[in-house]
Structure formats: structure tokens, C-alpha cells
Specification:
By secondary structure, the protein is mainly alpha-helical. It has 22 helices and 11 strands. Helix content is about 45%, strand content about 10%. The protein is elongated and about 110 Å long. It binds glutamic acid (GLU). Glutamic acid binds next to loops.
């Protein structure tokens, strides 16, 4: 049976992303998924999704769905996994318990593992003793060589057994494509539990069974798991499984060089999505955390990344998450979108902020598209759209910052002249607007701030905002006239 699972020499690349379903995916894990994905694409291999849900208390189906949602949004497609199927399933660990039991049995039979009947109290006492003597705790191996009488006795007492894996080597060498060869000393490893009392198998054990049976060729994951790898390695060896190649990628830090966490800003995919980051921008940005393009190119499409990604350009030093750079990159991606696409992506933001209604977007699509086109190069986030387009649907009462311009001698004349020139037209073009402003300048003598700021406040009630010719051409003449009248009434 083993043989059929073993990889032939020409086995093509198979990698996996193995999240635990405990909520939306953290950006660190998305980067792990991404490196696996890029590596698979680059090698023409398979990207497998496996749900590690054996921790029943922390896992939920709801969280699992959030993972699919996040991965779909980012554009990941898995070749095998839940919802997709594949020859090596099932792909959810809770559906593989039978397999884990089978392999735990094998390890018991071959003598690589043994049943441990120690109670929690006994183990706590061992731990306390070690602490008292200032020693690193390591299981005493008390149950390693129990006689059959002792076993019978424990079972008669109704004690439940866990299963422990025997650790005999003093050092366990582990090779890693990013970290290089590391010799892990076993002083602190001790015989470790692979199946808990009550039968729940433990990560380090199930991970090996799954990776081996799913023919995973490269295990690419966060370096918080580097420390687990020696334990996994000796399980591979004990079961006669061929070892995959390991690549542990460095962690992501916040700008203050501490581990990236909520206090640095967004950390889950959902938060980035809700603020109006584009999936493509996040995808691109994350690819550059501890990996770099051979020519240091930064804006890279998924296809370009598939083409050039390689594990040997993954650095062994932690990456700093530069939120400012991500924002900049997002702006670049927004500018590169078709206006129609941008309008579609921005609509939910404009609607949820209350600036536009659903009806407006649907019934006045033409106008909506011009509004979006006029602000496209001002957006860094999709959420910026509301503030930017508000002027096209709303006149704001001039505030104190408008007082000096409204108080200028020429301002009433400027606004009146503009009103007169609009009379009779339905709307004006940018060209017409230019001619009109020249005429107003000639007629009133106002120029510079006295002219342009007066027109801006006249049309919007604000001192800042979109380009004037955009406001003048996207609004129709009636709307502008009403706004000019309102502003005039403020001058009194
Ligand atoms: N479920 C583990 C995690 O999310 C997977 C670790 C691994 O890739 O082996 O951290």
C-alpha cells in the first residue's frame, strides 16, 4: 500500500495550502498560500487546498466558508480540495480520522509509538518538578516500557491513553530550501503526543500523513512551523514515507519591526477588501514580501508572477509590511482599470456611504460613469470614491473657509455672469466652459483665485474637490444654476 503512495522520481510538483478554519485569512497566511500558488503555477504543478479542522473547538464551517470566500476573491483556484474534489481526498481532516487511526496503529505495531496512561495531574507534577529544578521540561518516558500487568491495571482504572512518538536521536537534521540545513537538538523535544486521550490526533502527526498520502512534493509554509519540522521528519522516516522538500518563509513584520498584528492596521483579507483594496493589488503586493523580481520590477500581473516566481529568490529575512506602499500600489491598479470595471467595483462603496443610491447608479449610468472617470486618478482606495464624487450629487453650504472669497468684490458678478451664460443650454462641454471662464474674466476683471475659487465655491460650496471643468460639464445647466443661486444667497 505504501508504495502506491510513494512518489516516483518524475513526480510533478504538488503543493498545498492548509489553513485551519478559525476566521478570515490573516495576510501572513495569504502570503503562504500565494507562494505555494505561484510555485505551482511556475512549475506547471498542482495547488491543493486542505482544511485542517481537527481542532473542533476552534474550527467552524462558517470560518471554512470565509476561507473559500477570501481565496476566491483573491483569484486563487485550487486544483484539488473541498468543493473541487480530487484523487487524494477527502480534503478536510475531520473526514480523514480513519486514516490517522490506521497510521497510529501502524506506529504502535512497529514500536515507533506507545500508549501513555499518564494523567494530566501526573504530567503537571513532572512539569512543575522540572520548573523547580530550572530544567527544560521533557516527558519522563514513564510509559515507554510498561509491562502488560501495568497496562491492564491502568485500563482497569479506566485511564484513557494518549499515543506518544518515541524520540531517540540526539539531533534531527532538517534541510530547508530557505533556511538551509539545520540540526535540531532533541533536548527539549521528548517523546511527544501524536494522538490525544480521547482519540484526537495532533497536527504534527496528521500533517505528515496528509502530506505524504497527498503526494505533496514541497511543503511551503510560515517559519513558525520550522520548529515542528524535526518532529514531522522522524514520523516520515518511521513510516517509510519519502520526505518532501521544505521551504519555510519568513514572517511578516509591522513597520516597528514587531510581528504584524492588528495594532499595525488591517491584517485580514476581509479588512483590506472592505476598505477598497483591489484583489490584484494585494496579490501583487504580498508576492513581494520576502520575494523579489530578478530585475526588481514591482508592478507584476499574476501571469508575470507565474512566469518568474522561484523559491531561490525567497529571502531568509523577515519582510516589513509597508501599508503606504500597498496603498500606492492600489492606486496604480485603480488607474489601470477600465472605467466600467472601476465603476462596478466602486458602486458598493458609494452606495454604502450614502453618497449615491442604487437607483442613481442604475438609472443615470452615463452620468455615473463620467463621475467615476473624472476621479479615477485621484483614488487610492475604492472607498475614497464617496468623498471624491460627492460634489456631483450634493451642494454643501459654504463654510468659514469660503468667507474670504465670498467677500471679494467681484464674486457676485462672477457668479451672476456664469449664470447668465448658462441660460438656455442644457449642459456645456469642457471647451465651452473654458471659453465662458475667459469671457467672465474679461467682463468682471476677476482672475486667479477671485475667478476660479469663486466658481468652485459657486458650483460646490467647497474650496477643494474635483477639477472645475469636470464639475461644470458633468452637472447639467439647471443644477449649476441652482447652486450658483444658493451661493449668491449666502453672500446676501
Ligand atoms: N494548519 C496549519 C496552519 O494553519 C498548517 C501548517 C502547515 O502548513 O503545515 O498553520
Amino acid at each position: 500500500v505504501l508504495k502506491e503512495y510513494q512518489r516516483g522520481l518524475n513526480m510533478s510538483v504538488r503543493v498545498r495550502f492548509a489553513p485551519s478554519p478559525t476566521g478570515h485569512i490573516h495576510v501572513g497566511n495569504v502570503r503562504t498560500a500565494l507562494f505555494n500558488y505561484l510555485f505551482a503555477k511556475n512549475k506547471g504543478g498542482k495547488f491543493i487546498l486542505r482544511i485542517e479542522d481537527t481542532d473542533l473547538e476552534r474550527s467552524s464551517l462558517e470560518s471554512e466558508n470565509l476561507i473559500y470566500e477570501d481565496l476566491n476573491w483573491l483569484g486563487f483556484e485550487w486544483d484539488e480540495g473541498p468543493k473541487q474534489g480530487g484523487d487524494f481526498g477527502p480534503y478536510r481532516q475531520t473526514e480523514r480520522i480513519g486514516l490517522y487511526n490506521e497510521y497510529a496503529e501502524k506506529l504502535l505495531t512497529s514500536g515507533h509509538a506507545y500508549k501513555c496512561y499518564c494523567t494530566k495531574e501526573e504530567l503537571d507534577a513532572e512539569r512543575e518538578e522540572a520548573a523547580k529544578n530550572k530544567q527544560t521540561y521533557k516527558y519522563s518516558k514513564r510509559c515507554r516500557n510498561l509491562t502488560s500487568e501495568q497496562i491492564e491495571q491502568f485500563e482497569a482504572e479506566g485511564r484513557e491513553a494518549s499515543i506518544r512518538f518515541k524520540v531517540d536521536a540526539d539531533v534531527i537534521p532538517v534541510d530547508d530550501m530557505v533556511k538551509g540545513l539545520v540540526e535540531f537538538k532533541t533536548d527539549a523535544i521528548g517523546d511527544f503526543v501524536i494522538v490525544r486521550q480521547g482519540g484526537v490526533p495532533i497536527y504534527n502527526f496528521v500533517c505528515v500523513i496528509d502530506d505524504a498520502l497527498m503526494n505533496i512534493t514541497h511543503v511551503i509554509r510560515g517559519d513558525d512551523h520550522h520548529i515542528n519540522t524535526p518532529k514531522q521528519k522522524i514520523i516520515y522516516d518511521a513510516l517509510g514515507f519519502e520526505l518532501p522538500q521544505f521551504a519555510h518563509i519568513p514572517m511578516i513584520l509591522g513597520e516597528d519591526k514587531s510581528k504584524l498584528s492588528k495594532r499595525h492596521g488591517n491584517t485580514s483579507v476581509e479588512q483590506f477588501r472592505n476598505q477598497g483594496y483591489l484583489a490584484e493589488a494585494l496579490f501583487n503586493f504580498l508576492a513581494l514580501l520576502s520575494w523579489s523580481h530578478p530585475e526588481e520590477k514591482e508592478i507584476l500581473t499574476p501571469e508575470e508572477l507565474f512566469e518568474v516566481f522561484s523559491l531561490d529568490r525567497v529571502s531568509n529575512s523577515a519582510a516589513v509590511f509597508d501599508f503606504g506602499k500597498l496603498k500606492w500600489m492600489n492606486g496604480q491598479y485603480i488607474r489601470a482599470l477600465d472605467v466600467e470595471k472601476l465603476a462596478e467595483l466602486a458602486a458598493p462603496f458609494a452606495i454604502s456611504s450614502g453618497v449615491l443610491t442604487d437607483e442613481f447608479v442604475n438609472n443615470e449610468n452615463e452620468k455615473y460613469l463620467s463621475m467615476i472617470a473624472s476621479v479615477q486618478d485621484k483614488l487610492e482606495l475604492l472607498a475614497d470614491v464617496s468623498e471624491q464624487i460627492e460634489v456631483f450629487v450634493k451642494y454643501t453650504e459654504p463654510g468659514d473657509d469660503c468667507a474670504d472669497v465670498l467677500g471679494m468684490e467681484t464674486t457676485p458678478a462672477v457668479l451672476k455672469a456664469f449664470k447668465d451664460k448658462l441660460a438656455g443650454s442644457e449642459s456645456i462641454t469642457a471647451e465651452e466652459y473654458k471659453v465662458i471662464t475667459k469671457e467672465i474674466q474679461k467682463e468682471t476683471g476677476a482672475k486667479g483665485k477671485a475667478l476660479f475659487m469663486a466658481l468652485r465655491i459657486g458650483m460646490s460650496g467647497k474650496t477643494k474637490g474635483s477639477d472645475l471643468d469636470k464639475i461644470a460639464t458633468i452637472l447639467n445647466a439647471v443644477e449649476i444654476t441652482e447652486r450658483l443661486e444658493k451661493t449668491l444667497s449666502f453672500i446676501g
